[in-house]
Every structure is written in C-alpha cells, then in structure tokens.
Amino acid sequence: MLTSVDPDLIRALGDPLRLRIVTLLARETLCTTHLVEETGAKQTNLSNHLKVLREAGVVDTEPCGRFTYYRLRPEVLAGLSEQFAALAESARGAAGNKRACP
Hints:
By secondary structure, the chain is α+β, with helices and mostly antiparallel strands.
C-alpha cells in the first residue's frame, strides 16, 4: 500500500544546514559545540535547527553534563527511504496511465 511521505519530515530535511547536520550525525554523535565548529553556524541558529530536527523525530538528545549530544535516528531516515521507494515503484507502474482531458 502506498503511503504519503511525511511533509514535516521533508520540510525538516529540506534546509541545507539541517541536511548538513544530518550528514554529520550520520558519522558520529556530536554535541552543539562540535556542530558549531563543523558547520560554522552561530550557536543560536544551530539550536533552532536542531529543535526542528528533534520535533520531526530525526534526532535524539543525550544530556552529558553541561552539554547535549545529538544522535541521528536511522530508522526515521530508513522509513523515509521506503516511502520514496514506494512512490518510485508506483510511478513505474503508472508510466503508461494517462487521464484523458475533458
């Protein structure tokens, strides 16, 4: 069964900085300080982007003293990949379908 792709998740990943954050977190769990160093973004800007990713369910947090570490939730990205694969399969099957104009 074809399901729709979560628009909030797409929106969360659609920003270039958030996509960069996700790419970095795919390699290792990082704290905000590391992400500031890696991206060059201001800490407040980065925190806002991380909030969007948390609310979309893309990352989890882990407090560690005065720092917060961020970890990617790979199952969320895998689910998104499956949804896009289902859309692609549907498009392959519908390639010959054409609705007539009235």
